[in-house]
Design goal:
The structure holds three protein chains of three kinds.
Chain A: H1 2-8, H2 15-22, H3 26-37, H4 52-60, E1 66-71, H5 77-83, H6 90-97, E2 99-103, H7 111-124, E3 130-134, E4 137-138, E5 147-148, E6 151-152, H8 153-162, E7 166-170, H9 171-176, E8 189-190, H10 192-195, E9 201-204, H11 211-224, H12 237-240, H13 251-255, H14 266-270, E10 339-340, H15 350-371
Parallel strand pairs in A: 1-2, 1-3, 3-7, 7-9
Antiparallel strand pairs in A: 4-8, 5-6
Chain B: E1 17-18, H1 29-49, H2 53-56, H3 67-73, H4 76-79, H5 82-92, H6 102-123, H7 144-175, H8 178-215, H9 233-260, H10 266-293, H11 297-300, H12 305-323, H13 327-330, H14 333-352, H15 371-394, E2 399-400
Antiparallel strand pairs in B: 1-2
Chain C: H1 7-33, E1 45-50, H2 59-68, E2 94-99, E3 106-111, H3 120-124, E4 130-132, E5 138-140, H4 150-154, E6 161-162, E7 171-172, H5 189-193, E8 199-203, H6 204-217, E9 238-241, H7 259-264, H8 267-270, H9 275-306
Parallel strand pairs in C: 1-9
Antiparallel strand pairs in C: 1-8, 2-3, 4-5, 6-7
The chains are: A alpha/beta, B mainly alpha, C alpha+beta.
Chain lengths: 405, 430, 312
């Protein structure tokens, strides 16, 4: 099916033209645009337009960007997560909004036919297509651990990625190496940005990432040719600028000190905070707290009672043990604990008290003992042990006093 | 110097001039003990130099002043007010008998002040900014703390040091080479010319800062119990300093004579005792007068914790005041010692209590010095003791008899051997 | 023996006399620095806190920490929450709770620097590190502070806190966000973030008027029907309205004279242009000089009789 579509898209056409040619009704398209306005049940709006008509107008003029989707050392989870979207659904996306030139999971062809399609697409849309990469790239032993059509993955990336306008690295594997890069890292798995640091790359880490993040990036690129603002790890800020802990639905339990101590205990059943079970939420940047998965509320790790493992973060996921507790970097004030009006300070060290007592006692004791040596007789100037005789060297006293001072 | 005239007295004049302590080595077991304590204190001070204040002391935000300020400075410099009290009695009020004990007062006063200022130096948290003291336009003239911070180092480093200069130069004059003797010979008239001005300063400055130490507490307001908080705090602190100073000079003279085998001179000591009694009365008059004037006299006798502290303090002053009115008491060594000690304790008590025990910041906080803090205090005091122990042997400080005077200033290396019999003149006068 | 005064004595006498004259002339001027009833500067700003509106949300604590770059105080929470027990070196502003033991009534209180009209801390600071700055804000300058902690001893509200655990310790207290916000024409972080308007910012005169209006509008709602800070310690720029007794929320009972006035009323006269010390120096100097002259006159005789040099 895709081959037919490929043949007819000799020239890049706008979305309006495409829809017209495929017989998609205006009404369906408007429905699609409304779904774009709130592109997920939990709060990502892809456009700031006010009505579907406005969206349709803007979107209709957009030229469908060609997209080449590469799979390397992946589990296909990122593609799978994309399949579980319905607002808009994947069909709409790949058929009408973008021009999906190559995708190993979704395309009909295989073998030499698929390879031909890839080479054709690269040649025809060189410099214009978006390359989406899923899976990590092995580098050890000359990258023999993953080959596509006989070529090691990194060469394919250099070739395909090199001619792309932009590369979207979807998933933790493509962003920084993911699961294959976990200790002992037998394949030397790397992310796209590690191999091609000078290309325009957008990382969408996550295992899997939320599909609406990809949709947001693609649609922004498609409609305005720009990419969203990225942070220092090349992740789009609109999705990765907050950590899980900030907007976690179980935050009230954290603030009140209600923690799960053991899986299956009372607190766990009540849905209490999983911080003490090693939840990496405070250290993990992602939007999972508000945009859950599978378009069903509370379908996400913490929501089902499993502590976050920090799957987006290179320094945490598959490195820090799952049940190791993290530090809180931005502690806020707890809502139901208050400082008392009077807060006493200081403590008395028993050791110091002892030493002070000893010193004072010794002084007073010595003073008393010494005082006993003084006479109680009025006018008695005698001191025991005193003598009027001068001391050594007295013969030298014979020197007379000198002039001067 | 009228060292021989004790008109109307039947007592022997044993104190005629300052005489170094002969016949024992400088390094004794006692000295080594105190030197060890001083070393511990100085090592801890070095640690404090490189460390924040918190871990080494028990001070906290409620009790921001610890024993370094309240004891080493406020209380011990009161004991070190001997130069002020004895000096003014001798040079202003013409009590000429006291000139012979002036050196003892000066040396102990200097040591108390020096060790107190060292403690202060380690107590402040941002000592590197002290150079602002050289820029008078930055001085906050209303601040008692500024007055103390400027006046005490100037006093100790210039005026008190100058007063101690003659006794130091004396040793160089007698023991030094010919060239030194000639230089000192030429310097002597200059020193004599400026001497009266320097000692005027040496009395004006302590009058200022000893009262300012009390003035510091005025800003603490209601945090100090009303039995102690009064606009007359500066005057009372000054009077307490003179009591403590006189008391300490009396006590140290008695103990030193006992320790180094010198006969007492009850004429001089009696004079000190008399002055002590007068100053105690002066203090008590102002103290009680103040309480009556502020309407606190009932609280003073309410037998609460604060009231009992006050009554103890009053007793510490009243006892020497009354007992030393009696002439026979003033000529009995043990009574002089006990009364002097009580007066010292009274003066120390009065200066110490308002900053600590009667100081209540209102949040049930407590303060007790931490062990390093305490060891540093003990170390600084020990440093003073070591200083005194060495000074009395190197210099002519303790009062003694002229016949014991030795021009050679020789220090003993071994036990003393008998010399000429007593009474024999060993030198010729012209 | 000398009779009468010589040149030096005359000089000292003149100094003393001059000092007396100077002191007498200057004495009235001294009173102005710390008047018995301080007057607020014309541009005085202030905060009005009404604990009957405060919900204890503590947004002001978080906003203050953020605006001042202060770390959270997690010492008591094992690293989890910012949970100070009192103002301290990491907390310039705190919400405290006063609870009736029976649990029937409660009141919050926001504590921070009161920015007094005549602050005790400013009076005592030796080099003026703490000073009453523009708009009446009391600010601290690190280059002038020697860390003597006199400010902590003198503040009746126990506000300034010291960084005991730092080798380069600062004195930490609310400064009305002077550098980062007041100077940029913005209100302090705490008043800016308060969601209910429990604490508001404005000119002191306006806030005082508003507070009095609130008291008049609801008689017997506010404790003693008055505003705390109008006269306390001479008047403060942070004003309080409370529906529970002031001492229950930790606001100390204070008279209406400033501590600065109390502490300097005598010394400001005695030390004005150093007149007191100069007079005393003159008097003492005259007497000492006379006694010294007598002493010097007698010295040769004494030295001859004893055969020894005199000891000074």
């Amino acid at each position: 099916m895709l081959g037919v579509l490929n043949n007819s898209a000799q020239v890049l056409e706008t979305i309006d033209e495409r829809l017209l040619r495929c017989g998609v009704s205006r009404r369906s398209f408007l429905q699609f645009c409304s779904s774009l306005m709130v592109a997920a049940p939990f709060g990502l709006s892809i456009t700031d337009k006010k009505t579907p008509e406005e969206v349709a107008q803007g979107l209709g003029r957009v030229i469908r960007p060609p997209v080449i989707w590469l799979h390397f050392q992946d589990c296909t989870g990122c593609t799978e997560t994309l399949l579980r979207t319905s607002h808009p659904d994947l069909g709409d996306l790949i058929l009408n909004i973008i021009s999906l030139e190559y995708h190993e999971t979704l395309m009909a062809g295989s073998g030499r036919q698929a390879e031909e399609a890839l080479q054709e697409a690269i040649a025809k849309y060189s410099g214009k297509y978006v390359c989406v990469v899923e899976g990590s790239i092995p580098k050890r032993d000359n990258g023999v651990y993953m080959k596509l059509a006989g070529r090691p993955a990194y060469q394919v990336l250099e070739d395909v990625g090199g001619k792309a306008a932009a590369i979207i690295a979807i998933g933790s594997c493509a962003s920084w190496g993911g699961i294959p890069s976990a200790d002992p890292d037998p394949t030397g798995a790397l992310g796209v940005a590690d191999l091609m640091p000078d290309k325009t790359i957008i990382n969408l880490p996550g295992c899997p990432p939320n599909p609406y993040t990809l949709l947001g990036v693609v649609l922004q690129y498609a409609s305005s040719g720009t990419l969203p603002e990225l942070d220092h790890e090349r992740r789009p800020k609109f999705a990765y600028d907050r950590d899980i802990h900030e907007q976690c639905p179980r935050r009230a339990h954290f603030d009140a000190g209600r923690f799960v101590k053991q899986f299956g205990d009372e607190g766990h059943r009540e849905g209490w905070c999983l911080y003490e079970m090693g939840c990496k939420g405070p250290d993990t940047h992602a939007g999972c707290s508000t945009r859950h998965f599978n378009e069903i509320p509370d379908v996400w790790p913490i929501g089902i009672g499993a502590p976050c493992i920090g799957c987006t973060e290179k320094s945490i996921a598959f490195r820090v043990p799952m049940f190791q507790v993290v530090q809180i970097h931005t502690p806020a004030t707890p809502p139901d604990t208050y400082a008392p009006i009077i807060a006493p300070q200081g403590s008395i060290s028993p050791l110091a008290t002892g030493v002070a007592g000893l010193a004072a006692g010794a002084l007073l004791g010595a003073g008393y003992v010494a005082s006993r040596k003084f006479s109680t007789v009025k006018g008695d100037e005698h001191i025991p042990g005193s003598s009027s005789s001068p001391t050594i060297g007295s013969d030298q006293n014979l020197r007379p006093p000198e002039q001067g001072k | 110097m009228n060292q021989f005239n004790h008109t109307g007295s039947t007592l022997v004049n044993h104190w005629q001039r300052g005489v170094p302590v002969y016949g024992e080595p400088v390094i004794t077991r006692t000295l080594l003990f105190f030197a060890a304590l001083a070393a511990v204190g100085l090592v801890l001070a070095l640690v404090r130099f490189c460390s924040p204040l918190g871990p080494l002391s028990g001070m906290n935000d409620a009790y921001a002043w610890g024993i370094w300020k309240t004891f080493n400075v406020m209380t011990l410099t009161a004991l070190g007010s001997g130069p002020l009290a004895v000096g003014m009695a001798a040079w202003v009020f013409n009590r000429r008998k006291l000139h012979v004990v002036m050196r003892t007062a000066l040396v102990t006063g200097f040591l108390f002040y020096a060790t107190g200022l060292i403690a202060l130096g380690f107590d402040v948290g941002r000592a590197w900014n002290f150079w602002n003291v050289l820029l008078p336009w930055r001085w906050n003239s209303g601040s008692a703390m500024l007055e103390v911070a400027v006046c005490m180092p100037v006093y100790c480093g210039i005026f008190l040091a100058f007063e101690n200069l003659p006794l130091v130069l004396e040793r160089f004059y007698y023991k030094g080479p010919e060239a030194t003797k000639q230089r000192l010979h030429r310097a002597a008239p200059v020193l004599r010319r400026i001497y009266p001005f320097m000692i005027t300063g040496a009395y004006v400055l302590p009058l200022m800062h000893q009262s300012s130490l009390g003035g510091l507490l005025l800003l603490a307001g209601n945090k100090i119990d009303p039995l102690w908080q009064t606009p007359l705090l500066p005057l009372l602190y000054l009077l307490a300093a003179s009591v403590a100073g006189l008391g300490f000079v009396t006590v140290i003279l008695l103990f030193a004579c006992l320790r180094y085998g010198r006969e007492l001179d009850l004429d001089v000591l009696g004079e000190l005792g008399n002055l002590l009694s007068v100053m105690c009365f002066a203090f008590l008059a102002v103290r009680f007068g103040d309480l009556v004037w502020r309407g606190q006299i009932n609280a003073a006798f309410a037998f609460s914790k604060m009231s009992l502290l006050f009554l103890l303090e009053a007793a510490l002053f009243l006892t020497p005041a009354l007992v030393l009115r009696n002439k026979s008491a003033r000529e009995t060594p043990r009574i002089l010692l006990n009364m002097g000690a009580l007066a010292c304790l009274g003066g120390m008590f009065y200066r110490f209590v308002p900053t600590t025990i009667a100081f209540n910041p209102g949040n049930n906080s407590v303060y007790f010095p931490a062990l390093p803090e305490l060891m540093m205090t003990i170390g600084f005091i020990s440093l003073g003791i070591v200083g005194f122990g060495c000074a009395v042997k190197y210099f002519a400080i303790l009062p003694g008899e002229i016949k014991d005077w030795n021009y050679m200033f020789t220090l003993a290396k071994r036990r003393r051997s008998p010399g000429p019999a007593s009474g024999e003149k060993v030198w010729q006068t012209e | 023996m000398n009779h009468g005064m010589n040149r030096r004595q005359a000089l000292l006498g003149i100094l003393g006399l001059g000092g007396t004259v100077a002191g007498t002339l200057a004495a009235p001027a001294a009173a102005e620095e710390h008047p018995e009833h301080p007057v607020a500067p014309p541009d005085a700003v202030g905060m009005l806190y009404d604990n009957s509106i405060c919900t204890g949300c503590k947004a002001c604590m978080t906003a203050c920490n953020e605006a001042n770059g202060l770390p959270p105080d997690t010492s008591l929470s094992g690293g989890l929450w910012d949970m100070p027990l009192d103002l301290n070196s990491k907390t310039k502003n705190i919400i405290k709770l006063c609870e009736d033991p029976q649990g029937k009534d409660f009141a919050y209180v926001k504590r921070q620097c009161m920015h007094c009209l005549d602050p005790a801390c400013v009076t005592g600071c030796p080099f003026g590190a703490l000073k009453k700055n523009q708009w009446g804000a009391v600010t601290w300058t690190s280059s002038l502070c020697i860390g003597c902690r006199y400010c902590e001893v003198s503040c009746p509200f126990e506000v300034p806190k010291f960084e005991w655990d730092k080798w380069n310790p600062k004195v930490v207290k609310c400064e009305f966000c002077f550098d980062q916000r007041l100077k940029e024409n913005m209100q302090p972080a705490c008043t800016g973030v308060c969601p209910t308007g429990a604490v508001i910012f404005g000119k002191r005169a306006d806030l005082l008027e508003q507070a009095k209006k609130r008291v008049a509008a609801s008689p017997n709602k506010y404790f003693e029907n008055r505003v705390y800070g109008e006269h306390e310690a001479g008047g403060t720029q942070v004003l309080y309205l409370s529906h529970v007794p002031f001492d229950k929320i930790g606001l100390p009972k204070l008279g209406s004279t400033s501590l600065g006035h109390y502490a300097t009323k005598v010394t400001s006269v005695l030390y004005k242009w150093l007149s007191g010390p100069l007079i005393v120096a003159g008097l003492l100097g005259a007497v000492i000089k006379r006694n010294w002259s007598v002493h010097e006159a007698e010295r040769p005789e004494v030295e001859r009789r004893t055969g020894l040099k005199e000891q000074l």
